[in-house]
Amino acid sequence: MSGHKMLFSGLKLWTSGRSRWISRLHDDCSTKVCIVGSGPAGFYTAQHLIKARQDVEVDIYERLPVPFGLVRFGVAPDHPEVKNVINTFTQTARQPRCRFYGNVSVGTDVSVEELRHAYHAVVLSYGAEGNRSMGVPGEDLAGVHAAKDFVGWYNGLPSCRELRPDLRCDTAVILGQGNVALDVARVLLCPLDILKKTDITQPALEALAESQVRRVLIVGRRGPMQVACTIKELREMVNLPNTRPEMMAADFEGVAEALKDLPRPRKRLTELMSKTALEIPGEKEQQRRSVASHTWGFRFFRSPVEILADPDRGRAAGIRLAVNRLEGSGEGARAVLTGEVEDVTCGLVISSIGYKSLPIHPSLPFDSRKAVVPNNMGRVQHAAGLYCSGWLKTGPTGVIATTMNNSFDTARSLMEDMDSGTLDVSAAKPGSRSVSALLEKRGVKPVTFSDWEKIDGVETRRGEAIGKPREKLLTVEEMLQVARS
Q: What predicted TM-score, i.e. pTM, was given to this entire model?
């Protein structure tokens, strides 16, 4: 080899070695943050940290092989615009200082304690995976489902794949009057031509094609002025093709007089509800309603007492509701039993009374009554270096924008602690290097973000072939097969 070539070759080796050394030096000097859960709370926390600080590296761990949590598995199929936040999350995940590790179950494959050793800070953002119990006899009967599971079934959540709800009944009763309850009502009544163009799963589409549900009652323990849904979701119900509203005029007594004192968003919502329930519609709307084959309606001042069984089939055949009256007014009004009950015949009962978070490990702080991790602005109490964001921090409230703001707050708390020295970032931490070694030893092979992009590609191609935005893979096995192909 000539002298020039040797010099050039040596220079090349030295340059590549030096850049590796600089990269390793940066890697060792940076603050390592790990986020558990890749839903909106996890991604918004990561986004804020990466944008605000050049010295922070973020690793996101997710139990499933696919990211995005409730954006993928909770948002209604006919709300594709809400899923656009995935584009923002994808930009975050592609940042050099952000890494995604799917198919890793924290608490099973790797402990929180091991993560705390490997990272300067750990943010718990794994959401609300549990269901709130109704606490009434018969809630375990066939034909009774939690809204979270029903939503997971039509959105392709692997753990809900076997749900197979029996839709061979005329009436469905949904308990709860929030946006999720209205999503479920809309999917049950939505014309198939609309659903066919969404990313609803094929098995759900087939089941809904055979559905005999013609009437949906959306039941709440309080009155029209306390409903938890937003005006957008109510308007969608009012305008849903081939449906007409059926409400009880008595439920709206005194509402018109109270309207003037309501805050504007609540006033607009209540006005639309009252108008839908009480006013005689115009000719065009009357004509639309007269040919509608499906009905829906709110039922107010009602609480579940018991799910009634069909003795022959051992499944739900009806629901007994207690009749309530209100004490107080506005948001603080309480439902009080009157002693009256009424029975409603129905073959499907869906409980939409709220999701709840579950503790990830007995050693970590958890308020089981509120189903949240006790925290101060996202700082977990009595656990230095441990933070939380999303529903685990606040309880299951608000929309995606609410989660964004509370996740940004958690990120700000973490950065304040870095600056004040409350969070010790002086010692180098190995981060994913040590966790990857542990996972390898335990036979766990994580799914990277580029592996997820393979899954994404397959799903969108499958969807395009049948005129849908995507056709989701429904099992973890299928997802892993594609990811590793």
A: 0.91
